[in-house]
Design a protein that fits this description.
three-stranded parallel sheet; binds nicotinamide-adenine-dinucleotide; single chain; globular; alpha/beta; Rossmann fold
């Protein structure tokens, strides 16, 4: 089987490409990516074929989809804050781009998996979030992800296109970049801790998230592709863990064996308060698969960060903030 991954040089995409290429049933893996947030280096040392280009280019899409048996569509402008800064750009890539990918798939009835987001639940406060709840996006990003999954399902109903829309929750793990304004919380925290800086918490830190290790996400998607799993509704891709941002900081302090200091800023516009997946549909479709536990996933992620040259001086967990003889060395210190 040959597989195309749009956004294949990005964080989740590159982890997925690496998972797919390791499977005996998979021949070629092609990553289509414009490298706007992804990087060719994420695929270095693999047999994954990188095609540099945009999902907005219909001719290019036509060419790359023609050579594959399945498509995983991950290319997007991810991030709520980026969509607040430029809603049209998010719409163009996330909504219009998805329709272009779907059109290329429709011509050959090519199986498609697409990435939606837990952000589509938005202001709906019920927990855990199950797929039959209403959707109330709080940001242009969330609206564009609702468009992504809605189009995929509509192409299934209208044209019989086989596909699956996954709602990712907070995915973390190796290859997820830190150190920029739109960085996700796990890499931001690890980066700050390794640089002996305070960790920025937006709001009181009691907001909760369902963190999913990227290796878990890659295995579920690979399984979906290999079995061409379909579903008439979107499927949450998370296993129902509910961890507050303060608890996350605590877990990281323990994993990294560093003292961590927090600094609070105002809550961010468009962020949801609580998030936790109902994983019933996922478990029903992928009965053999289980999730990598948070502690293990964080430990793998920290190991990856420490392997990067820019953190070389902090490989062994030493830090000016860390006093190895102190009983508080492993506990986050809450700055007011
Ligand atoms: P990412 O930024 O690392 O990956 C997106 C990739 O798409 C990048 O490699 C980027 O260069 C590429 N891209 C952007 N515009 C493109 C275009 N026009 N043509 C071709 N490639 C383009 O982010 P990620 O976290 O890996 O996200 C992957 C997908 O998962 C996205 O669709 C995102 O919305 C979704 N998602 C991610 C999370 C998460 O926690 N990371 C949560 C919910 C949903």
């Amino acid at each position: 089987m040959n597989v195309l991954v749009t956004g294949g040089a990005g964080f989740i995409g590159a982890n997925l490409c690496r998972e797919l290429i390791s499977r005996p049933a998979v021949g070629r893996v092609i990553a289509l990516d414009d490298l706007s947030t992804g990087a060719a280096a994420n695929l270095a040392g693999t047999d994954v074929e990188l095609v540099k280009g945009s999902i907005l280019d219909c001719d290019l899409l036509e060419d790359v989809v023609a050579g594959v048996d399945a498509v995983v569509h991950l290319a997007a402008r991810p991030s709520v804050p980026r969509s607040l800064a430029d809603p049209l750009a998010s719409h163009e890539v996330n909504a219009t781009g998805t329709v272009r990918v779907l059109e290329a798939c429709r011509r050959r009835n090519t199986y498609l998996v697409a990435a939606s987001s837990s952000s589509v639940y938005g202001s709906v406060t019920n927990l855990p979030k199950h797929e039959d709840l209403p959707t109330r996006p709080l940001s242009p990003y969330a609206a564009s992800k609702l468009a992504t999954e809605s189009y995929l399902l509509a192409y299934g109903s209208a044209f019989g296109l086989p596909g699956l829309a996954f709602r990712f929750f907070n995915v973390y793990g190796p290859l997820q970049p830190a150190g920029h304004a739109y960085a996700a919380v796990v890499p931001s925290f690890i980066d700050a801790a390794l640089r002996s800086k305070r960790l920025t918490v937006f709001g009181d830190g009691h907001q909760t998230r369902d963190f999913t290790y990227v290796g878990t996400v890659a295995r579920v998607i690979a399984e979906a592709v290999l079995r061409k799993v379909t579903c008439a509704k979107p499927v949450n891709l998370a296993y129902g863990t509910r961890v507050s941002i303060l608890e996350l900081a605590q877990h990281l302090a323990e994993t990294m064996e560093l003292a961590i200091e927090l600094h609070h800023e105002a809550p961010r516009r468009g962020d949801v308060r609580d998030s936790q997946a109902d994983d019933g549909t996922l478990r029903g479709l992928f009965t053999e698969l289980t999730a990598v536990p948070l502690q293990q996933g964080l430990s793998e992620t920290v190991k990856w960060f420490r392997s990067l040259p820019e953190y070389a001086s902090n490989r062994h967990g030493t830090s000016p903030l860390c006093d190895a003889n102190s009983s508080s060395a492993r506990a986050p210190k809450m700055a007011q």
